[in-house]
Amino acid sequence: MLYKAVWDDGSIIDLPVGKAVCVGRNYVAHAQELNNPLPDEPLLFMKPSSSFQSFDSEIKLREDLGEHHYEAELVILIGSVVDRDTVCYSDAVAGVGLGLDFTLRNVQTRLKSQGLPWERAKAYDGSCALTPFTPVTKHHKLRDSEYRFWINGELKQRGDTSLMINSIEELMANITQVFSLYPGDIVMTGTPAGVGALTHGDKLQLQHNNGVKYSSTVMIT
Ligand code: ZN
């Protein structure tokens, strides 16, 4: 079924489904846990709209691709064009949600060692699971966001904008020097420490700023 973004009241978001620009190594502790050096500039990669699926009752992943690792991330939904001439980035943010950036870690490690692009490990079908989005009003502080991710009731990851190497505005400024963001695009802002592999049947939960706790079950078939 084709992905459609939804607001947290369940209504469909009246924006096109765009691309995801993703940030790697935006939390010090996560870069360290994978023995990666901290980047001099934000490390960017993209996922196409074909990678999106909803974080609702079931998350579907393919077994034949290998082991899927999770990365829980804060996700920014873009509501108006942002390019290298933009002055105020927060005005262009329509909503905030959470997402899982799925990664075939073994494939990524091989591609990295061969100096090859990461898309096969990061941009495959279903590799981006997105919760509903909460609308952002003009005065919403993008700075104060905290979120948690549990597997089978155990807290696995806790993200906080105060722990990010680059803030959301800094990321948007850097991204749009190279990639304009269009309405319906999303930015995945990087994952904190605690990443790992998923198992068929895992019960996942995501919660942003003590809001609704979204739940899903992993189906790897
Ligand atoms: Zn990620």
From TrEMBL:
GO terms for molecular function: acetylpyruvate hydrolase activity; metal ion binding. Residues 19-207 form the Fumarylacetoacetase-like C-terminal domain. InterPro entries: Fumarylacetoacetase-like_C, Fumarylacetoacetase_C_sf. Coiled coil: none annotated. Gene3D superfamilies: Fumarylacetoacetase-like, C-terminal domain (3.90.850.10). It comes from the Bacteria. Keywords: Hydrolase, Metal-binding. Pfam families: FAA_hydrolase. This is Fumarylacetoacetate (FAA) hydrolase. It comes from Pseudoalteromonas citrea DSM 8771.
